[in-house]
């Protein structure tokens, strides 16, 4: 990476740390980059963004009528697009809580086996 681009990248990373968008795990990632693979971080960040978008989309598609979970996923996706760290963290907590609420309500019925779905 050329010196001006490296300085620009380092400034961006410093600003992202200051805004709370990055944590110590990103510093560990930077330590893994070697001179032989100068685009390592770029590739990892690209994969993170592409995979994250795909996974969030898949989660929304897999919901089985769990409306609150679906709405929380939509809110999480919107916060990601807005790059709102606090919004992402809050909506991710909502996704997690709503998911566990639905699962815990189904859990007694799921363990009952076939009787959950009476024969017509």
TrEMBL record:
<dbReference type="InterPro" id="IPR045871">
    <property type="entry name" value="AHP1-5/YPD1"/>
</dbReference>
<dbReference type="InterPro" id="IPR036641">
    <property type="entry name" value="HPT_dom_sf"/>
</dbReference>
<protein>
    <recommendedName>
        <fullName>Histidine-containing phosphotransfer protein</fullName>
    </recommendedName>
</protein>
<dbReference type="GO" id="GO:0000160">
    <property type="term" value="P:phosphorelay signal transduction system"/>
</dbReference>
<keyword id="KW-0902">Two-component regulatory system</keyword>
<comment type="function">
    <text>Functions as a two-component phosphorelay mediators between cytokinin sensor histidine kinases and response regulators (B-type ARRs). Plays an important role in propagating cytokinin signal transduction.</text>
</comment>
<dbReference type="GO" id="GO:0009927">
    <property type="term" value="F:histidine phosphotransfer kinase activity"/>
</dbReference>
<dbReference type="GO" id="GO:0009736">
    <property type="term" value="P:cytokinin-activated signaling pathway"/>
</dbReference>
<dbReference type="GO" id="GO:0043424">
    <property type="term" value="F:protein histidine kinase binding"/>
</dbReference>
<dbReference type="GO" id="GO:0005829">
    <property type="term" value="C:cytosol"/>
</dbReference>
<dbReference type="GO" id="GO:0005634">
    <property type="term" value="C:nucleus"/>
</dbReference>
<keyword id="KW-0932">Cytokinin signaling pathway</keyword>
């Amino acid at each position: 990476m050329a010196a001006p681009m490296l300085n620009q990248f380092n400034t961006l990373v410093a600003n992202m740390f200051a805004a709370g968008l990055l944590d110590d795990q990103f510093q560990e990632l930077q330590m893994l980059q070697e001179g032989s693979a100068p685009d390592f971080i770029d590739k990892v960040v690209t994969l993170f963004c592409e995979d994250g978008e795909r996974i969030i989309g898949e989660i929304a598609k897999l919901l089985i009528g769990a409306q609150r979970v679906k709405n929380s996923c939509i809110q999480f996706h919107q916060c990601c697009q807005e790059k709102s760290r606090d919004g992402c963290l809050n909506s991710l907590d909502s996704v997690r809580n709503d998911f566990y609420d639905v699962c815990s309500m189904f859990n007694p019925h799921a363990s009952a086996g076939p009787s959950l779905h009476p024969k017509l």
